[in-house]
Amino acid sequence: MRKLMTIISEKSLESFKAILPVTLIITVLCFTIAPVPVGTFLSFIVGAVLLLVGMSLFNLGAQTAMMPIGERIGSYITKSRKLWILVVVSFLIGVFITISEPDLQVLANQVPAVPNMALLISVAAGVGLFLVIALLRMFFSIPLQRILIACYALVFVLAAFVPGDFLAVAFDSGGVTTGPMTVPFIMALGLGISAIRSDKNAGADSFGLVALSSVGPILVVLLLGLIYNAGDTEYAPTVIREVADSRELWLNFTDGASGFPHYAKEVLLALAPIAFFFLVFQQIGLKLSKNSFLRISAGIVYTFLGLVLFLTGVNVGFLPIGYFLGSVLGAYEYGWIIIPIAMLIGYFIVVAEPAVQVLNRQVEEISSGAIPARAMNISLSVGMCVSLGLAMIRLLTGASIFWFLIPGYGAALILSFFVPKIFTAIAFDSGGVASGPMTVTFLLPFAIGVCTARGGDVIRDAFGIVAMVAMTPLITIQVMGFIYKLRLKGAKPPGESEEPTPEDSDVIDFNSGGS
Questions:
Q1: What is this structure's pTM?
Q2: Residue span of the structural domain in which 104 resides
Q3: N or C: less crowded end of the chain, CB within 10 Å?
Q4: Is 164 inside any structural domain?
Q5: Domain presence at residue 505
Q6: Average model confidence (pLDDT) for the chain?
């Protein structure tokens, strides 16, 4: 019990440090240049408290349940040495977890040109297919770089034929579908599979699953844009509920359609597939001890409570204030002021994404501390800072999203030839991780508020911010990798190679039967 309380204290302190800076920045803005309604500000304060508690519980649940379940299932399907088990199980995991991902509902509501059910099933199938491709890449040691170049080449070829008003929403879909439920489990799945391999490249190959899983939704939504009349896409304005007194404040958070009950149902549906797979594999192969089983079960409860509190806090508390801040700042005569403000918010807000801490912890463990979590946080913060600056410039100028995404992804793919491959895999994973619920429920409404105040086209100009957020970490993390490589080279005595020559990776033999 004492150990549990110690862990909870550590997670609470981590969450407090992550949430405090952005909370203070928003508070200062509200009391100075961007006044908002009192009820909206009070909802924001309550939401910040919910974020603190929810993020602490979620991180505890991810450590005690989500990661262990993913690792054990990954190890089991690898040990079976049967290709069909890998393909079927990974595809089903990708489909079921994606369908239940809360952020996917946000995406579905953004694309009125495509029926919701068609979008949900198509995107889920896309994630499932690319998760299979990602796992097969690990088994057969196919360089991630080659697959990424082929996938993004296909993405931009398809994008050339899709109506311009649909492009931003399509690229946003890659970041939206890799949310707080999907990311920890998929990352742990890769970690469990890599643990079976004995070659030097196994650790690096455990990354890249989120990267490829993020490509699937983009391709699928672009294809749907060709099938349906995507040009009919219109933005349905979000209704911001006014809060007049303390009772209405309470009802705002407990409302069945948008408060605790709503997100409890969403998170329950999201956790159900993971719990189901865990119970099935526990019966057929894992055979965990009673204590391990109970510890993981308790972790699932922590994850449930944490995500309910977190999602309620960001949707009820942060979404309205994001929209109002954007509206007030966007109405200023000197529109450029939103650029430095957005960059400042972006620098601090990324560490409040729940899955970011999961990624940073895994990177630090896999690299044995060579890539510390602090360095990851700084790189992601710089990336978010740059992405928000570029997104605001795009919003003010009305420039096409292509002018930013093509050079950005081009630079990221070129960098992949000059950095250790583990940094490329981590960088492309970071893009999906950074564009989580905080981006969708605060930064997107902020951009919509600015766009509305300045009379812009919301679909063309405001949407796309998730895609921008997902792009810049690909560059900043690889730049960190390039610096790391230079330092490693400088530390080597003359005559030695700058990094160990990797041996041929072991390829799993699927024809040798079970083990």
A1: 0.84
A2: 2-233+259-491
A3: N
A4: yes
A5: no
A6: 83
